[in-house]
Amino acid sequence: MAPAEIIEFYESRMCALQSQLETSQSELNTYQKRCEQYAEAYDLLQHQLREMQRNRFGKKSERFIDPENPQRDLFETDLNKFAALDAAGETLSEDDIKIAAHSRSKKKTKPEKELPRRIEIIPVSEADKQCSCGLCKTVIRYEIKESLHYEPAVFEILEQRREVVACQKGCDGEIKTAPAPLHILPKAKITEEFLSFLVVSKCDDRQPLYHLEKQLSERYGIDCSRQNMARWLIDLMPALQPMYNLFKDQVIDYDVASCDATTLQVLKEPNRPAETKSYVYCIRGGSPDKSVILYDYNDKLHKSFVKNWFEGFEGYLHVDGDNFFELIGEIANLVNCNAHARRKFEPIAKSAKGKGIAKEALRYFKELYKIERKAKEDKLTPDERYALRQKESKPLMDKFKLWLDEVYPTTLPQSPLGKAINYSLKLWAGLARFLEDGRLEIDNNLTEQAIKPFVIARKNFMFAQSVDGADALCMHFSLVRTAKLHGLDPYHYYVKLLKNLPHCKSVEDYEKLLPWNIQLDYAKVG
């Protein structure tokens, strides 16, 4: 073989080997990427498994206890004092070392509401009233025992008889009939007290209407169908709408509010399957002495719904990280919830062993909430809380942000930890906004607590039959929860409300029925 042929042979062989090498390298890169994907998927599945096991068998509390030093909080104040003195080269004197004596305080019982009192006299027998001297004994005192007593509810028929008068001589046109009293539902053969009972049973006692139907039928022999009860609750909406509008005005006119949402299934929504989930929004707002809690139903286009609901609002709005609130950010300053950010790290920290990024993040949150507890325990004013946050919380938040920026590149973006850090960094402006005003909260937990009664009730009635039913449910919940927020008993408030609404002619008449203006003939609930 000629040298040229040999060179050509080896060159072709080298090209073939180079091509095989490139192919092998490409396959290796593909397999490496697959291995990384499999490893990431494995970590995600492991995280989900640990999370499910924790939710099923573990504690539900979100409280974080540092596993490396679980008793640090017990001595933290003293340790800080010792550390400061040690740094200054000083020691505590014997006078400074004091141990408080242990004393067990008596458990405080909640004072009972003033209840009607029935006095029952138990007399002494006639034989025991006779003294051995022959005289009759007199009562000198009583041995008293107080017992809580119960009598079942009383249902009765209220028969209204309107007088009809006429002249005894039979004069034409002199027959007069007493005017019919105004009723909130004139055509319904029920009183305002019964309607109030329905509303409170449904919204505050969380009784589904089919439960009430069964109780009325079996216990009291009353034939009252759930369809009628649902129709009455819906028919109350037009009369109650002015009250709801006045409540909403309080939210819009004040510059601090909050909003959260939960799901509600409505069976008969136009052009939507019955299993489709809709949402109920819970809104808190108003000045401290005129606070309100409102609920509103919406089926779709949630971003525009929220923006339209808060039209005219200017100020701070507490929200979570849901994209429902993106458009409202154009007209309001969003205050994002640090509790939601913390919850992203909490399951990761509890399922991991040893030290870790998630546990370090929880330590930052722990210190921030410790400052908030201090402000609450000391009953600081908004200005005092603002000063405390600027002094202690702001440096801690700045340090936290630097730490998040530093550790984020070391995590996989699609891992639970990477998503948790990305959530905090993405919403950081909103998470730190509570530092701007002492009236703001560090989280949105107050609104979550306000929406919880609706969620618990929903577990009983499960769904709304129609859109009108969902709207009525939200309106009644709004009035009941706002009344309770101001210490009013919802039943008595509704009775007074329903009896007076037919007589309202002006805005001033409706304003007199607001929970902070109304006068009820009973003591407030404690």
Largest sheet, strands/sense/barrel: 6 strands, mixed
Terminal CA distance: 109 Å
User: Which oligomerization state do the chains in this entry correspond to?
Assistant: single chain
Return residue spans where pLDDT drops below 50 for at least 5 consecutive residues. Answer: none
Q: How does the overall form come out from the CA principal axes? A: elongated
Please report the number of helical segments. 17
Estimated share of beta-strand residues: 5-15%
- SS class: alpha/beta
Overall average residue pLDDT: 85
Q: Tell me the radius of gyration.
A: 35 Å
Tell me how many strands there are.
Answer: 8
Instruction: Tell me roughly what share of residues is in helical segments.
Output: 40-55%
Helix-strand topology string: HHHEEHHHHEEEHEEHHHHHHEHHH
Report on this structure.
This protein has 526 residues and is α/β, with parallel strands linked by helices. The protein contains 17 helices and eight strands. Strands 3, 4, 5, 6, 7 and 8 form a six-stranded mixed β-sheet that branches. Strands 1-2 form a two-stranded antiparallel sheet. The mean pLDDT is 85.
